[in-house]
Amino acid sequence: MTNWYVITGGPSSGKTTTVNMLSELGYATTIEHARHYIDLQRVTGRTVSEMRANQVEFQRGVLEMQLEEEAELDPQDMVFLDRALPDSLAYYRFLGLEPDPRLLQALHEVSYRKIFILDLLPLAPDYARTEDIPAQKRIHELLTEVYSSLPVPVEAVPVLPLQERTEFILNHLK
Fold first, then answer.
1. What is the domain-level CATH number for residue 114?
2. What is the mean pLDDT of the chain?
3. Are 137 and 11 spatial neighbours (Cβ–Cβ below 8 Å)?
4. How many domains is the chain partitioned into structurally?
5. What is the pLDDT of residues 52-69, one digit of tens each?
6. How far apart are CA 10 and CA 90, in angstroms?
7. A Pfam family in this protein (predicted)?
8. CA-to-CA separations, 49 to 15, 128, 161, in angstroms, rounded
9. What b/e readout covers 31-53, taking b as 16+ CB neighbours within 10 angstroms?
10. pLDDT confidence of 128, banded at 50, 70, 90?
11. Confidence band, pLDDT 50/70/90 cuts, at residue 26
12. How many CB atoms lie within 10 A of CB 71?
């Protein structure tokens, strides 16, 4: 088993804000790969709508980044992940796409210490987020289903002010 903790939840649940707070407190963290993929593609001149028009390519690009990152992390290091491989399966299901075989294989090998699923905050659209409220809720449900199917403890994190939410996670690591 790794010493990795996954911070996840539907769009606009405060994942990245929470992970950034953990980083500021000195904990090792990762980035959210969907947003990073979008940012890298935007540098080349592609728009978000162009990227989202080919969801298979988009999901594969994000998956590739996630696979690479998790392969490079030391299993002994305590790390908070801003999303993880199982998030990809939830998104493939949400989009009605056949999951990439590499994802399915990797899901048999994943090992996380604990999963923290953040309760949803009000949807806050931005340049990278295209979901509406029904999509936000459905993605959150799918993430909960996917992670609950794994042999890993799952903890729901209630809506709290940022510092209290971060303390909640730190107080529930075991």
1. 3.40.50.300
2. 89
3. no
4. 1
5. 677 888 888 888 888 988
6. 10
7. AAA_28
8. 23, 9, 33
9. bbbbbbbbeebeeeeeebeebee
10. low
11. very high
12. 8
Instruction: Please give, one letter per residue, the 3-state secondary structure of the chain.
Output: CCCEEEEECCCCCCHHHHHHHHHHCCCEECCCHHHHHHHHHHHCCCCHHHHHHCHHHHHHHHHHHHHHHHHHCCCCCCEEEECCHHHHHHHHHHHCCCCCHHHHHHHCCCCCCEEEEECCCCCCCCCCCCCCHHHHHHHHHHHHHHHHCCCCCEEEECCCCHHHHHHHHHHCCC
Give the pLDDT confidence of 83-116 residue by residue, as tens digits: 999 999 999 999 999 999 999 999 988 889 999 9
Confidence of residue 36 (pLDDT cuts 50, 70, 90): low
Name beta bridge partners: 29: 80
Beta bridge partners of 155: 116
User: What is the domain range of residue 119?
Assistant: 4-171
Facing residues of 82 across strands? 7
**Contact (Cβ atoms closer than 8 angstroms) between residue 103 and residue 92:** yes
Q: Please give the structure tokens belonging to residue 141.
A: 């449900």
Structure-block tokens of residue 122: 């009000």
Q: pTM higher than 0.85, yes or no?
A: yes
